[in-house]
Amino acid sequence: MITVPAGFRDSALATFGTAGAEFCKTLPAVVDEYAARWSLTLDLPAGAEPWYGMCGIVVPVRTPAGEAAVLKISWADEETEHEHTALAAWSGNGAVRLLAADGARRVLLLERLDPNRTLRDLPIDDAVVTLAELLRRLAGPAPPGVEAVADHAARWVDELPRRWRASRPPHDVWLLDRAVGIARELGPSSGALLVHTDLHYENVLATLPGAARHRGRWLAIDPKPMAGDPEFGALPALWNRLDDLDGADPAAALRRRLRRYADAAGIDPDLAAAWSVARAVETVVWNAEIGLVQEQQRPAWVAETLAAF
Do the domain assignments include residue 1? Predict the structure, then answer.
């Protein structure tokens, strides 16, 4: 039986309260249940703990054929609802391969990648291009059930002004007006392609030695899928690794990063800038709602910078 890492227990309690604590209590039994159901062998060294992220744990296992895999169990919410749907649609093309799933319970059996090698290990220019190329590879037809960007944008038009007034973020209201205008203008005509909306540098892992190289050295994980314009997925590449921007003129460097990303992904840089502004402003509001003051600065700066793209 596995031991739930203390760090994950603390994070789950802080994020989800008593429900998070109860979720953690169930995890060892859930791992045992699905190991038996799918005839898996735990592949944790003695005394080692599972890997974990913000919303779930990842347990190394071996399949009946001896393949290195992982059992991923996530907190059940709207962000994890269609992870298995997206992975099944991609079928290993640009993303980790899904081997089995119980989507309702957020239990996934995935091929094992290298958890110690992410795109943070690459120089920033190479990492940006690699991330952009994955965005392009993943932009296929969206399967049924995945939330549409059009519906998301319509909610922003209706809800963002009310949420802004209630949370009172310490930023100029023109940011809100710009975000609402973008959502109103672009939402109805957004596309219907499958978009990994959380495609950042740590959500791309290297394949293990001996893996099929025709799929590429790097594969995406942990999708938060939506159906819309690929440009909607640009923001994570822009507002992560800000420390790698040219310190002499970081605003100009961020805009250059966007152009480089758009060129490599084959997307419209103006559309990517617009959607990134709207998404960044929504993050400002969300952080204001939960009382995170310092965490508003990065998305606000990114929105202001890209609004002048």
Answer: no
Mean pLDDT by 10 residues, the chain (309 residues): 88 87 93 97 88 91 96 93 97 96 97 95 97 96 96 96 94 94 96 96 92 82 96 97 92 97 98 98 93 88 94
* pLDDT at residue 54, rounded to an integer: 83
Cβ(265)–Cβ(232) below 8 Å: no
The β-bridge partners of 60 are: 70
Last residue of a domain, one of 111, 133, 163: 111
Residues 121 and 104 in one domain: no
Q: Is 198 a catalytic residue?
A: yes
What is the model's pLDDT at position 213? 66
Q: Domain tally for the chain?
A: 2
Instruction: Say how far apart CA 51 and CA 60 lie, in whole Å.
Output: 8
Tokens of 4: 């739930």
Q: Which residues contact 199 (CB under 8 A, 6 or more apart)?
A: 131, 134, 135, 138, 220, 223, 233, 236, 237
Active-site position among 43, 198, 244, 268 = 198
Q: Is 76 strand, coil or helix?
A: coil
In degrees and rounded to multiples of 5, residue 111 shows phi and psi of -60, 155
Give the domain range for residue 10: 6-111
